[in-house]
Write a sequence for this structure.
C-alpha cells in the first residue's frame, strides 16, 4: 500500500513539476522574445540613424531689417535732397542656406546659394580635400584669399554692424579656380597660408574690374595669396598680408598687357580685459591697374587715360561686457571708420568716407539684433570733361537689422 | 663736369626733383618686388613646413579643447554653444571651420572633441 501510495504521489509530483516547468518555460520564452523584439527594433533604429561614411547637413543664415536714409547731393550749386526707407533693408537683405556634405574625414563639399539684393546668386560652391594635417586642396567657385573680411567676417550674424565697409567686399572676388591652404603650429606662434589660382579679374571699358567669370578672357591665370601670422600663443592677434597678381585685359585686344596688382593688409585682435571683450578688426586694400588708354564715353573718336589706383580701408572696434550677469553681457557696442578712394579723372572717381556706430543685442551666440547709424560723405573726383562728375554727397542712414545663423 | 658747372640754379633744382621722382618710382618698384619676393619665399617655407611637419611648443600642445574653443572661435564670431549641433554635425562643421579659420589639425580635433563631449 505504502509503495502504491508513494508511486501515486510520485507521479503527481512529476506531472505537476512538468506542468509548472512547462508553464515557466513558456513565460521565459515570451519574455525573451519581447526583449529580442525590442532589441531588434532598437538595432534597426540605430542602423537607420547611423551616418556611415557620409554626412549631409544644412546650415545657413538669414538677415532682414529696415533702413531709413536721407541723402543730399550737391552738383553745380544745386542741392537735391531725398529720403527713402526700405523694410527689407535692401542693401543688406540675405537668405543663404549653406549645404555641407562630408565624405569620410577627408572630403567636404560646400555650396551656398543666396537670395539677396542682387537676386539669386551663389556665394561659393567648392569641394575640399584634406590631404594632410596642414594641407587642404580646394577646387570650384571660391572666395579668393584676399584679406579676411569677405571670407570670415561678412556674414550678418558675425558682422558687428549692419553694413559692409565700402569697397572691401568689391575688391575680394569670388572666382573659379583651385586653392591650397593650411594652418601651421610654430612653437608659441601660428602661421597660415592660402594660395589660389583662378581665371582672374577682367578689365571693363571704364577701367574697373569684374570677377567671377567662368570663361577666362586671356591665357594668364591670376594668383592670389594670403599669409597670416598669429604671434601670441593665445591666438589673440592675427596679422595678414595678401597679394593678387595677373593680367586683366582681353586677349588680342589693345588691353592684353594690362595687369592688375592688388595688395591687402589685415589685422584681427580679440582679447578679454575683464570685464570687457575687446575686438579690433582692420583691413586696407590697394589695387593698381597698369596704364591704359580708354575710349571716351562722350566722344568715341577720343581716348582718355588716368592713374588707375583704388584704395579702401576700414578700422573697427567693438566692446562687449563679459563679467556682468545682467542683460549687459549680451550687449555690444561697435564703431567703424571706412575710407574708399577710386581713381580720379576716371568716370567713377570718388573720395568717400563713412563713420558707422552700432549697438547690438545678442539673443544667442548666433542671433543678433543690431541698431546701426552710418554717416557718409562722398566727393566725386570723376572727370568733368567726360561728363562723369557727380558732385558732393552727404548721407545719413539708420538701420535696424536682425540676423541669425541656423 | 663743364656743363654741370654752367647749370642755372633752376636747372639744378629741376634735375634734383627729377632724380628724386625717379628714385621714388624705383623705390616703389623695388618695394613691390620685395613684397612679391617675400610672399613667394614665405609660401615656399609654408609648403616645406607643411610636408616636413612643424610642432607647437609644450605649453601650446598641452592646451585643452575647452581652452582652444574659447580662444579661437571668438577670433571671428561668438563662441558656439556645444548643444547647437549633434556630434556628427560638429564633425562636418569642424572641417568647414578648419578651412575658414585656418586652424591647425590638432586645434580642430581638440575643439570638436570638446564640443562633442559637452553637447
Amino acid at each position: 500500500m505504502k509503495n502504491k501510495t508513494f508511486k501515486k504521489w510520485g507521479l503527481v509530483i512529476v506531472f505537476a513539476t512538468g506542468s509548472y516547468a512547462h508553464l515557466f518555460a513558456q513565460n521565459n520564452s515570451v519574455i525573451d522574445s519581447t526583449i529580442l523584439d525590442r532589441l531588434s527594433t532598437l538595432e534597426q533604429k540605430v542602423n537607420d540613424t547611423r551616418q556611415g561614411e557620409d554626412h549631409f547637413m544644412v546650415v545657413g543664415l538669414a538677415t532682414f531689417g529696415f533702413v531709413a536714409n536721407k541723402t543730399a547731393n550737391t552738383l553745380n550749386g544745386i542741392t537735391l535732397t531725398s529720403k527713402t526707407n526700405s523694410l527689407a533693408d535692401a542693401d543688406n537683405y540675405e537668405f543663404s542656406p549653406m549645404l555641407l556634405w562630408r565624405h569620410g574625414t577627408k572630403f567636404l563639399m560646400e555650396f551656398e546659394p543666396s537670395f539677396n539684393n542682387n537676386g539669386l546668386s551663389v556665394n561659393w560652391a567648392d569641394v575640399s580635400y584634406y590631404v594632410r594635417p596642414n594641407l587642404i586642396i580646394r577646387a570650384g567657385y571660391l572666395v579668393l584669399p584676399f584679406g579676411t573680411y569677405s571670407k570670415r567676417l561678412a556674414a550678418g550674424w558675425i558682422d558687428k554692424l549692419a553694413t559692409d565697409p565700402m569697397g572691401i567686399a568689391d575688391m575680394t572676388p569670388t572666382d573659379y579656380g583651385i586653392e591650397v591652404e593650411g594652418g601651421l603650429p610654430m612653437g608659441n606662434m601660428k602661421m597660415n597660408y592660402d594660395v589660389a589660382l583662378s581665371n582672374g579679374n577682367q578689365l571693363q571699358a571704364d577701367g574697373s574690374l569684374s570677377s567671377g567669370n567662368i570663361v577666362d578672357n586671356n591665357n594668364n591665370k591670376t594668383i592670389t595669396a594670403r599669409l597670416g601670422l598669429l604671434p601670441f600663443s593665445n591666438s589673440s592677434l592675427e596679422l595678414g598680408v595678401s597679394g593678387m597678381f595677373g593680367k586683366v585685359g582681353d586677349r588680342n585686344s589693345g588691353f592684353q598687357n594690362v595687369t592688375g596688382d592688388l595688395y591687402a593688409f589685415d589685422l584681427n585682435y580679440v582679447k578679454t580685459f575683464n570685464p570687457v571683450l575687446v575686438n579690433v578688426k582692420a583691413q586696407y586694400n590697394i589695387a593698381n591697374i597698369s596704364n591704359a588708354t580708354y575710349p571716351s564715353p562722350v566722344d568715341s573718336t577720343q581716348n582718355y587715360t588716368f592713374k588707375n589706383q583704388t584704395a579702401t580701408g576700414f578700422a573697427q572696434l567693438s566692446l562687449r561686457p563679459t563679467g556682468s550677469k545682467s542683460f549687459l553681457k549680451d550687449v555690444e557696442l561697435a564703431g567703424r571708420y571706412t575710407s574708399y578712394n577710386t581713381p580720379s579723372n576716371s568716370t567713377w572717381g570718388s573720395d568717400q568716407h563713412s563713420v558707422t556706430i552700432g549697438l547690438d543685442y545678442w539673443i544667442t551666440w548666433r542671433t543678433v539684433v543690431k541698431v546701426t547709424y552710418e554717416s557718409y560723405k562722398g566727393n566725386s573726383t570723376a572727370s568733368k570733361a567726360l561728363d562723369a562728375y557727380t558732385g558732393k554727397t552727404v548721407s545719413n542712414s539708420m538701420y535696424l537689422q536682425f540676423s541669425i545663423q541656423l | 663736369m663743364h656743363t654741370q658747372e654752367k647749370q642755372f640754379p633752376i636747372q639744378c633744382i629741376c634735375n634734383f626733383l627729377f632724380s628724386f621722382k625717379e628714385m621714388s618710382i624705383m623705390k616703389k618698384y623695388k618695394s613691390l618686388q620685395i613684397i612679391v619676393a617675400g610672399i613667394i619665399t614665405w609660401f615656399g617655407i609654408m609648403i616645406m613646413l607643411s610636408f616636413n611637419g612643424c610642432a607647437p611648443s609644450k605649453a601650446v600642445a598641452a592646451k585643452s579643447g575647452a581652452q582652444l574653443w574659447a580662444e579661437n572661435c571668438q577670433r571671428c564670431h561668438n563662441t558656439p554653444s556645444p548643444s547647437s549641433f549633434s556630434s556628427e554635425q560638429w564633425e562636418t562643421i569642424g572641417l568647414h571651420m578648419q578651412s575658414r579659420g585656418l586652424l591647425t589639425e590638432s586645434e580642430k580635433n581638440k575643439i570638436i572633441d570638446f564640443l562633442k563631449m559637452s553637447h
